[in-house]
Amino acid sequence: MTRFVFGRTAVLVVFGRTAVLAACLMLGGMLARPAQAGDAVCASPRQMDGFRTCADVAKAEAEGSLVLYSPDPEEGSAKLLEAFHKAFPKISTNFIRLQTGALYQKLMTERRAKAFQVDVLQLTDMGYVLDFQKRGGYMQYVSPEMDGFKPDNMSTPKGYWTWSSYIIAGLAYNPKLVKPEDAPKSWKDALEPRWKGVMNAKTATSGLQHVTWYELRKLYGDAYFDKLAALQPRAFDSYVQQFDRMISGQDTIAFTAQYSAYLLAKAKGAPVEFVFPTEGLTATPGVIGLVAEAPHPNAAQLFMDWFLSRTGQIAYDTIMSLNSPRADAPPPPGGKPIEHVKLLYPSDWQDFLQSRPAFAQSWATVTGTR
Amino acid sequence: MTPRIEVNDLVIRYGEVVAVSGVSFAIQPGELVTLLGPSGCGKTSTLRAIAGLEDPSSGTIRLGGETVFSSAERRNVPTEKRHLSMVFQSYAIWPHMTVAENVAYGLTLRKLPRAEVEQTVRRVLDMVRMDGYADRSASKLSGGQQQRVAVARAIAFSPTVLLFDEPLSNLDAKLRTEMRVEIRELQRQLDVTSVYVTHDQEEALAISDRIIVMDHGRIEQIGTPETIYNRPGSLFVADFVGAANLIPGRLAADGVFEATGGVRLAVAEGGKQDGTTVALRSSYVELRPESAAVPDRMNVAAGMIHRRMFHGDFIQYVVDWPPGQLIVRRPPTEMIDEGASVRIVCAPEHCVLL
Amino acid sequence: MRALSLRLRGIGIPGLLMLLVVLLCAALVVYPVVFIVAESLNVGEPGVFPPEAISLANYAGMRRDLDVLVNTLLVAFGATVMAVVIGFVLAWILTRTNIPGHGRLERLMELPYYMTPLVGAMAWAVLAAPKNGLLNQLWHVLGGGGDLFNIYAPLGIAWVMALFEGTVAFVMISAAMKSMDPSLEESSRVFGAGKLRTALRITLPLVAPGVLSATVFVFAEMLGAFAAAFVLGIPGRYYVVTTAIWESTQSFPPEYGRAAALGLSLFVAMVVTLTISKLIMRRGAYATITGKAFRPRPVDVGRARWLLVAVAWFYILVAVILPLAALLLTSFQKFATVDLSESIFTIANYVTALSTGTLGPAFLNSLILGLSVASIGVPVIGILTWIVYRSDLPGRGLVEYVLMFPQAVPRVVFGLGLLWAWINIPIPIYGTLWLLGIAYFTVFLPLGLRTMAGVVLQVDRSLEECARVCGASWLRQMRTISLPLLRPGLAAAWLLIFIASVRELGASIFLMGPRSKVVSPAIINAWLTSSSELSAAMAVILTATVFAAVVVLFGVARRFTGTQQA
Domain count of chain A? Predict the structure, then answer.
């Protein structure tokens, strides 16, 4: 159902199943070093407690450290790493949290100066993921746990990056301030003038916001955003602020409201309701990959195996209330299975990537940052 | 005899401003020499250059024959190696020390035995009549007491050269006169070569062996207090030191000075031949009754008392006379009514042609 | 050159060492500035040095940021006016009147500085946000309609900036008032002028140089203020230069060129203001420091003193008590609600704050940095101060300008410059505390220099000269005279740099790495991505830690300086 389009600006090379070989050769050539492991799993993965690994556990423990760059909320990353640290007490963990765009920018600054800090990278914007792969930034490692994921959700060739979550968004409102019958039913309803000054959204640095913009433009054209701009939504860096403000009544409705945030807030007992817009929910994948020149490559591989396993995915999904692309992982507590939700996301990631400048400008106007 | 202090062609510049331009003088051992002049005349800069606190632009300074500064030799001995001492205008008493610690500072630096330091501190404090204050915190002293401690500290380590930078200018008038006597007393007693900077001409006259009058970075006159007072070398000195009348006019062919208004004055010998002013100290003028007889050699003119001001130690008269007004100081015993006609009498040797 | 060589002979080896320190510190400042300037001209790929292509396009592009520049000037102006008025009134009350208990009150006035603008802004967001702000809720309960306050409005931002970034105005103005000869006021009273008239016609003009210089300094500070504009401006869709710069560096590809150009444009404004302030300071300094030691005699304000006490306490109320109370309340809530009566209280936020494992190391790092930057900074900046204000080293005026530069560029921009500068050097300090230490030292040079200049200028030069005349070498003079005399001032400067380091945000936010997290960015991150209740708990912990540190350090400092006063 989803097709990925790779390529350079001049020539678009469309990868079908028949073009996989060509892609391997091309990407292989782009990497600084030839792929070490290839795209096959190691011969005899070791069975650990709840997952299989190809990593050298002794070496990983000798490295003793793991650094994660992630756009997830601090609390989430902290809990995730804590769970890993509990499984491997000899490996201490650190992380940096920044919004996806800022995170990628920091990573680029560091790599340009050859200051290698990070082992594992999470991004929520396929544009950056593809760019980073093109730059040879990912380390190829084919985890034995990757067989739980659909090929559509992984890099070609395998082992550079993998989708590890669906981040999906619709609309949300505070039922104390909006009666359910008055609540919007669709993305289109969000344009009603009564939401003027009481709506919030995400900043332009968010991958999810970019996807939402991209998909809604496909449906309704640029006029949609002219009307949205008239409502003067406020832009925030993370869903936490969006929901905070909505729950506390400073805003009444959230645009690009993350489903996971709704689940978390609802679990706390906060007054909040979620809307599955009739057009569908916009979605961006959370993408994980290992970083070339990682200071702790073995620990990174071990983490990847743990994280992609059913155990790791359940831990992650429980903390973050996200849906896993892994077929055997259950939906997050209280959440709908992903198969029951209509998703909107780009079919042509290259086109998506190229729409960034237009998005940045449009979104700056909508949110009044410029 | 080698002069104790020798300054040659000293020039001090601050950027564009020339504070001292080509000053030279020599001071003999045991002498107290005053640098006198209005503020900004370069006297303090000169003193600080001797101390090594100021970097001159050119010239040489010798202390006891040893060159401590020479622009030609590129030699500049740091202050602490010049073995001199100084009393600052602000006293520079260190507030974080006791009186005794202040005085002992220079002694401890010279690594003297403890007992000797204590003894000297006691002796010196005694000399400035500050015994009993040794353990007092220096920040709790009055101005006069700080002044005494500053002097005690300066003389404690028996320096051979003592520099005074307007040490009395922050004291009230009575205390100033007292301290003046004491400083002179101490200087004589210790026989220490001293350079004393002041803008107070009275102080300079009272205290000095010799005075160097400075203006605009140059030396106007060097001489004993008597010479400076009686025979001022320039208009500036006449005006700045003591109270002098400056009488305009010109020298006639017969060698007699013809003041404006037609008064003729015989002048002292050795005056400036093309001078157009006669300087006459107000104390050297006598006022006689109109009828009084006057010796022939004296200059005489007619005048009338315009105003009388009683000062206590003297009476100051403003006398109308042909060249204008004349200031005359007479003892308080010589009381003349305002409006009275008088004969103005003065000796030719007191009329200095400038 | 000749004068230099002669002078250095007088000081010897220490002189050469000092020269080295000066050059090193100047290099620390100039090096990142080169990168900022280069980036502002860079129109090629952002962050590549040297730039692939240069042009003035980034400067030309500032046309589009005109509204942001206007916003910045408006907020900075409003905040400055408020800060100076507050500072003047409080300074007058505390230094010139006989209100009861002014000693304690004066100490309390320092508290907003320790609160930090970040915490202050977060607290005021809780207090005065439209609809659910506590003060607005109170207003609704009292029957008021609409919102009484809107902290997200420009006036609200300016208010918070004035309260928490403007504390320096009070300090500077009260210093000016303390050094004023009271007889000048008394003579006015003798001529029959009333107290108010005297305050306005005599006191005000007399301290005018001090007030003006404080105004200019505060204005420069406000132009570069970040935390309040960040916390309050973004919800209000009100962007100023610093927040616009922040936004433009947070996407990929980052608009570094725009950020650098905007930052340097503020530099122009700040150089003008700082130059004016310097000129005024120079002139003003002569007027106040050459004077005798006055014992300021307070004005008897009669029964009005209770009103004045109330004014002072009102300031404490809005700058310390209310914000802290609001934060405490929020930190114990499960989630902030529209209606306070529906609150569910919990200590879970504190448990989370202390157990997630990010805050602890961040606190530790900040304390380590504060201690070491202050301890190294004070002696080094002391030497710099001595050179700039006491020596006759040629070009020391230029040195002063260079060292003051970090004050003239918003911290967020200087932070970027430091990032580029130090990541591109083949010494592996990126991602370590060393980088943050160097960065803090560099950005606090102006603060240290300013504070210590005040201290150094208060010590009469002849006190040092006298020691030399007595035969002490330069080192001995420093040890026995200069340092003991400067000690109380140095202790104050130490505390100031310590606090500034602990609360630093603008530079740290770019420079911290996974293993070198510090506390202010950690709180910002919590505020961005965790609940406001959790970040309130963190802010309470931060404030408590800073207060505790200050109390301990004051105790130590008192013992340290007390012994020699006895």
Answer: 2
Is the pLDDT confidence value at C360 over 60?
A: yes
Would you place residue C6 in the very low, low, confident or very high pLDDT band (cuts 50, 70, 90)? Answer: very low
Contact flag C9-B76 (C-beta cutoff 8 Å): yes
Cβ atoms of C441 and C373 within 8 Å: the answer is yes
Question: Is residue B237 domain-resident?
Answer: no
Domain check: are A152 and A60 in the same one?
yes
For testing contact with chain B, the best of C455, C470, C477, C564 (most B CBs within 10 A): C470
Domain co-membership, A135 together with A216? no
Q: Do the Cβ atoms of B202 and B211 come closer than 8 Å?
A: no
Flag whether the pTM goes above 0.95: no
CATH number at B101 reads 3.40.50.300
Domain carrying residue B116: 5-230
Q: With pLDDT > 70 as the criterion, what percentage of chain C qualifies?
A: 85
Judge if A106 and A235 occupy the same domain: no
Residue C494: pLDDT over 90 = no
How many Cα atoms are found within 13 Å in the side-chain-facing hemisphere of C50?
3
Residue A168: strand pairing partners: A283
Check whether residue B201 and residue B281 sit in a common domain: no
Strand blocks (E) in A100-175: 120-123, 138-139, 161-173
Instruction: Tell me the average pLDDT across C31-60.
Output: 87
Q: Indicate whether A200 and A218 sit together in one domain.
A: yes
Q: State whether the Cα torsion B267-B272-B273-B274 is positive or negative.
A: negative
Residues of A whose CB is below 8 A from C531: 240, 244
Give every CB contact of residue B302 below 8 A, 6+ residues apart in sequence.
Answer: B290, B321, B322, B341, B342, B343, B344
Chain B residues 205-224 with a CB less than 8 Å from chain C: none
Domain that holds residue A113: 21-166+284-335
CA A97 to chain centroid? 13
- Does residue B204 sit in the same domain as residue B120? yes
In a domain, A305, yes or no: yes
Residues contacting residue A291 through CB under 8 Å, at least 6 positions apart: A107, A116, A118, A119, A120, A121, A137, A138, A139, A300
Answer yes or no: do A50 and A63 share one domain. yes
On whether both A129 and A118 belong to a single domain, the answer is yes
B94 inside 8 A of chain C by CB: yes
In this structure, is residue A10 part of a structural domain? Answer: no
Domain CATH code at residue A297: 3.40.190.10
Q: Write the CB contacts of B156 (distance below 8 Å, at least 6 apart in sequence).
A: B103, B104, B106, B107, B120, B121, B124
| pLDDT reading at A37 higher than 80 | no
Q: Which helix (H) or strand (E) holds A273?
A: strand A273-275
Phi, psi at residue C357, to the nearest 5°? 85, 0
The reply to whether C532 touches chain A by the CB within 8 Å rule is: yes
Task: Check CB contact of C1 with chain B, cutoff 8 Å.
Answer: no
Alpha helices (H) in chain B, listed in sequence order: 43-51, 99-109, 114-127, 143-156, 173-190, 201-207, 225-230, 235-240
Q: Do B177 and B251 reside in the same domain of the chain?
A: no
Of the candidates B52, B86, B109, the beta carbon closest to that of C472 is on B109
Pair (B224, B247) in one structural domain: no
Assess whether the previous peptide bond of C50 is cis (omega < 30° from 0). Answer: yes
pLDDT (tens digit, 9 = 90+) per residue, C209-238?
Answer: 778 777 887 888 888 889 999 999 888 888
Do A148 and A264 sit in the same domain of this protein? no
Residue C409 backbone dihedrals phi, psi, to 5 degrees = -120, 140
Q: How far is CA B70 from CA B45, B54, B163, C443, in A?
A: 16, 13, 20, 43
Give yes or no for a contact between A120 and A68, defined as CB atoms under 8 angstroms apart: yes
A98 at the C interface (CB within 8 A)? yes
Using an 8 Å CB-CB cutoff, list chain C residues near B106. 470-471
Domain boundary among the residues B190, B206, B230 is at: B230
pLDDT under 70: residue ranges of chain B:
none
B86 reaches C (C-beta below 8 A): yes
Same domain as A211, residue A276: yes
